[in-house]
């Protein structure tokens, strides 16, 4: 589908999530090809920061929505199919907790892509003796280094932040 159609659908989903009055995600961002501004979009990728109760509320919203088929549901992903066969992947990040840093930036970075950009980042991390766990962040051994923001992840890899539209 074309970028503007995909953006319209994605923004509608974001509005639905934001309308959950206290049970909705703390943060929501449209990612993937839409965020990178690609003219043609294969599916819609959205990242939502949720705790367990919020994740359940999000799932309930889409299970009850006419014209939405829940294809898969788990702790990290809700995969939907809309009328017309439009695929929506809703990825879940978690907020900072006492013993667990936020993974928002890592999930947003990975789900923005592109695949080639992610492979480059993972290779760079490895060359620095680090590991990018996409659902958690950048680690050196067992030590967490960065994951809460994209900027911190790029910094941990010795890079300046790269605008999504330049992540080809």
Q: Mind explaining what this structure looks like?
A:
The protein is built from 6 helices and 8 strands, in the order H-E-H-E-H-E-E-E-H-H-E-E-E-H. The protein is α+β, with helices and mostly antiparallel strands and 168 residues long. The chain has 2 domains: 3-93, Beta Polymerase, domain 2; 104-166, DNA polymerase, thumb domain (Beta Polymerase, domain 3), CATH 3.30.210.10. The strands form 2 sheets. Strands 1-2-5-4-3 form a 5-stranded mixed sheet, sandwiched between helices. Strands 6-7-8 form a 3-stranded antiparallel sheet. A hairpin with a 3-residue loop joins strand 4 (77-82) and strand 5.
Could you name the key traits of this structure?
168 residues, Beta Polymerase, domain 3, five-stranded mixed sheet, three-stranded antiparallel sheet, 24% strand, globular
Write down the CATH class of the largest domain: Alpha Beta
Q: Total helix count?
A: 6
Describe the biggest sheet? 5 strands, mixed
CATH topology of the largest domain: Beta Polymerase, domain 2
Strand percent estimate: 15-25%
The assigned structural class equals: alpha+beta
Total domains: 2
For the largest sheet, list the strands in their spatial order.
1-2-5-4-3
How does the overall form come out from the CA principal axes?
A: globular
Unreliable stretches covering 5 or more consecutive residues = none
Question: Helical amount among residues, as a percent range?
Answer: 25-40%
Using the 3D structure, state the CATH architecture of the largest domain: 2-Layer Sandwich
CATH superfamily of the largest domain: Beta Polymerase, domain 2
Total beta strands: 8
Give me the strand/helix succession: HEHEHEEEHHEEEH
